[in-house]
What we know:
By secondary structure, the chain is an alpha/beta fold. The protein contains five helices and seven strands, in the order ααββαββαβαββ. It has helices spanning 3-11, 15-26, 54-68, 100-114, 134-151; strands at residues 31-38, 41-48, 75-82, 90-95, 117-123, 156-163, 168-172.
Amino acid sequence: MTQPNILELAKQGDTQAIASLMNRHLYPKGIAAKVAFQDACLEVILESAEVPNQQILVAFIRKGLTALGAASVEIVKVYGQQRGKEFPAWSKEFDLGIAEAEIKVIDNEQYSSNTQCLTISINLSGDPARELTNQDFELIANQIGTDILSSCTDVFIQKVSITNGSSVVTKER
């Protein structure tokens, strides 16, 4: 399929085209999306070696489907599942019929009542004789940021900023 054909088919609610668009972004991260459609409800199963990150992936799916504007899709159910497991580790349902501004208000209300929003700043210091290069630092900082953002479920972390005195690595949601 060519790019315009996939996009047009996805806008028409074609599950294979929707899955193809999702997988284009998710496969490089080790996540596979399976999509099914029934009675105006789109079901998306996200499967990877580790349990997929619910907050990040639900936001990704919501944003993508809202931008897609598939008129036939009203409700979306997203499931996160570890590869090889029989049942999903988590699920989230949302209504695509709600305007984007209303979604932001709902999300903000959920975060304010259910979770805290935090920014984490880390300053790394070490032995200067070990000659930690900027590239080494960036690899370490990216891993720390990814680990923090993916492992926090009860607290919503908006931003992780890691400094080593000369370089700063920032990851935002």
